Amino acid sequence: MQLHLLEVEGFGPFRDRQVVDFDAFADDGIFLIAGRTGAGKSSILDAVCFALYGGVPRYEGGEKRLRSDHCEPDDVTEVVVEFSTPAGRYRVTRSPEYERPKKRGGGMTVQSAAVQLDTLVGGEWIGLAAKEREAAYELDEILQLSREQFLQVILLAQNRFSEFLLAGSRERQALLRRLFGTERFEDVQTRFDERRKAAERSLGARLATVSARLDEGERLVDNADLGHDSDAQGGDTASSEAESLVMTTDERLDRLRRAQARADYRAERRAAERVDAEKESDAADAALATLRDEQRAQIERDRARAALDRLEAEEHRIADARTELHEARTAELLRGPITAAATASSALDASIEAEKRARAVWAAHDIVTDDLAEWAAERTRQTGTWQRAAELEGSASALDAELTAAADAVAAATARIEAAEADRLALPGQLEQLTLDRDAARQRADRVADLAAARDGAAVRHAAALEAERLRVAHGGAERELAEASAALAAAQTALAQLRQRRLDGIAGELAASLQDDEACPVCGSPEHPAPAVHTDPVSADDVDEAETERDIIARRERDAAEHVSALRADLAAAVTRADGRAADEAATELHDATAAHAESVEASHERTRLEQRRDALIERIRRLEIDRERDSAALAAAREEHSLVAQRMAEARQAIADAKGPFDSVAARLAATLDEVQAALALVEASAERERRAEAATAAMLERDAALAASEFPDVAAVERALRSAASQAALESRITQHAVLREKERAILLDLELRTLPEEPIDLDPAELRSLAARQRWSAAVDEAGRAAAVAEQLAALIEAAAAEHARTAEDAAEYEVLQNLADTIAGRGANTRKMTLETFVLAAELEEIVEAANRRLGDMSTGRYQLRHSDALAARGAASGLGIVVFDAFTGQTRPAQSLSGGETFLSSLALALGLAEVVTARAGGIRLDTLFIDEGFGSLDGDTLDVAMRTLDELRQGGRTVGVISHVEAMQEQIPAQLSVRATPNGPSVIETR
Prior knowledge:
By secondary structure, the protein is of the alpha+beta class. It has 24 helices and 17 strands.
């Protein structure tokens, strides 16, 4: 994998877009990323890691802090990385989640994290993925490295460099597990432990089951009193239980099988006894049932005899009822003719009386005519003509009111037309004046936008002028603080330089003071010290560190003061520019004038709106007046026409009324008198006709009644009325007769069958037979219970023996399987016979560690001139701590191994570098042998002396062989002199950092 290009914007310390072209360093092979502490050197590697994996190693889980604190709300945060692999060239564009202003309205909104993966095809970038999950999957296929592997083989990040060398076995195991993905071996160990525990539980459960089955079987034998073997006869339960404790499972099974044979024999005997008892019970029940049947028959015979005697005694009353029912049915045939004759006679008498009353009413009118019907018809025809005149006479007042209303409508329509005409003539002049006023207001209001812009500009200039006056005062104070901080920094630098010089001058004396007799000199290695140097001016490393700390604090103050002055200077220049060179008083006057002009224009805009509304209302009023004039003209014409029609109807009505009333005071009076006369005539005609019809009907009904009575068995009408009965009485008589006949025939049939059975006359006694049946049933029930208990004991004992034998047979297989699983699980988990106490995962990682150490030693031997070698140690750790992944250092000078923690700072750096490069080679090989064309090392080279630094530089030179590009992050001046190709990260005075190529 090779990096080609990095673009960073709004990320970490970088606000503006910074571009790093890694291809520019391909010819040199090695380049330095230099800059002051805190400028953002490591942020370049953070940006690469974030683009490829969406996270930063230095602050896990803090993606929201990736956005630069120097960004304005509208600034973009984005990282772009171009890289290539044998599969092709790719570009990743990634942004974290951050807040930005809303595009609509006020306030802030969250800009979601985004990623875009493209590939270069035919000179054009083609999109591969635009979602987080899809991009992660594609990058995993392309890079073939996890993030932990990437940080270990490509980005040797700060604070991780010596971690692997100095870590304990447990910490080293955690790191190797992340790199090589060996969690599956821990899962294997866990699964084997679970299988061992499951097998142990299964074996224990099976053994417990066998014992429980045997115990239950022995308790069943004791409770059923099945007895024991001959040698145990007569013993008690306690001795039997004691025997069970010393007997084997097979012996206990044999003893239970013998008890089962006795239980089977007992069950057969009890079954035979149950069959005999059942036969005796059935015979007793049959005898009792026969006797009970004869008793019931005897009772039924006596009852039938008594019922038949009662029915025979009632026979004379039933005969009277038959005679009464026959006469009632015969008389029922004459009910119709007798009733019809009586009704016709009554109707005839009523019609004669009605005719007399109608004739008296007609005579009161004193009218003589030969034909009443003809006279009534003539008078009816005349009343039809008079009826219309009567209606007109009744509505005369309504016609008068209608004529008055029509005259009022004509007058009202005329008044409306005259009133509206005056308004219609005056409104056009008002409309013209409103239009002139509206146009004048519109001209003043059209300048609102221009005057608002002028007012806003004046406000900005006024605020800027005030800000400029404030910033001038602040800038003067800040420059004084900067001068003081610069003087203090110069004094601190001078003091630090003097301390360092004194420290270097007295280093020999300091080393001599630590020499001990017969101990090797750390410089020459000699155990003899003939002329040790004298330390005359002691300056300790703590003194130098304290001076450096003081210098750094003052430097930060000076830098902060310089940044503050620069910021104020920039802000002052910006404020003067925004104020357009105006003083505060001048800007305030302009703002006041612009605000007044704008307010006047706004008021003109409101006035224009009001005038337009009044003009529109006036136009609408003119239009409504035209519509009303047309409507009122039409209403006046209609009112005049209606008035003429009403007057004409009034004259016609008066003529018709005069013709119809004749000599009467009114038409209604004449009409009422004539109607009374007609009704009296018609009533007399109708009454005479009705009397004639009733007379004919009465004669016919009497003749029909007399004929029917002559043909019947009754002498007169009174005899018929005595014999008549209602329908309910007839039904009751018939039901009584029928029920008596049916009951008598039924009782005769019952008694005939019972008399044929020759039953005894004395009552039958059931008590002896019931006692015999009860005793036989009790004996059968007891036999059934005994047989059931015996069979249940035999079946239960057989089931327990079978279950115990089956479980006992499977126990041997489970025991063998458990032993194998236990030994295997203990070995994998570092227990039992595993004397090294190494788990399976540790064993696998130990093999990987041996390869890593072997690869590291190929460089460490050259870097230490053959003195040091790293060795894998699987020695047992103290107090049961994790072991198997130890690393010790073999010192060729002494021929002994020692802990890595005993190395000096420079030796630790070289060993860590060799181990990290060896780890990178092994991880690369495990990842499919991918080629690493770009490598970054972020570590403090400042702890190395000159010779060690030369060795480190030679090692870095070797790394660039084969076209590899190596980037080193350091602020050591010696490395800046030895590496000409450089990226300089510099913090600007106003805060954000920039990247410059040298």
